[in-house]
Amino acid sequence: MTYARAERAALCDLLDRLGPDAPTLCAGWTTADLAAHLVLRERRLDAAPGIAVKPLAGYTASVQQRIKTGRSYPELVDTVRQGPPRWSPYGLVPAVDMLVNMLEFLVHHEDVRRAAPGWEPRELPAGLNETVWKRLSTGAPFMLRKAPVGVVMRLPDGRKAGGKKAEPRVVVTGEPMELLLFAFGRQEHARLTYEGDQAAVERLRAADLGV
């Protein structure tokens, strides 16, 4: 089983356990909203662009709401668990599943886990940690393009990935999963340390870094 499929299964197991009304880190979304979002992005290609393109967001939101209310919560979760249909880009090209869905499901799994009190970071397999770090290393300039200051991401072992090149610069240190959450705009829910000018650190921690 690929990491992407393993995270999909683990997230669906958690959604099943928590039910439709549990909170998530996605502002205003319950677990039912998150499940509907995941169904939309893989099965409603007409509405998926609005996830990233603000002028289309209204249509996307209306489709997502119809998906949420148009079927039971167990059916929603089961649809996510089944994976993308074969006609979807995620289904047609297996590499796309690993390339895109691995990070998507890792982050959304933590969106559900870390919305509950008392959470602790998971201990991820070494291979998954390395895979996440490689993705961060290559994707950091794009992921951190909206950062208000310069950013360098650093692992506890000292390895670094350049993000946005600007001054002042902040060095953000953490495990790969924590840095991934940071890059996806979950700064306040990631275990990280920040080094740099205090005002720059505060601006970075408050910035909208969502990919």
Automatic annotation (TrEMBL):
InterPro entries with a match to the protein in the record: CHP03085, DinB/YfiT-like, Maleyloyr_isom, MDMPI_metal-binding
Domain Mycothiol-dependent maleylpyruvate isomerase metal-binding, first and last residues per copy: 5-73
Pfam families, per the entry: MDMPI_N
Molecular function terms from GO: metal ion binding
The name this protein goes by in its record: TIGR03085 family protein
The species this protein was found in: Sphaerisporangium melleum
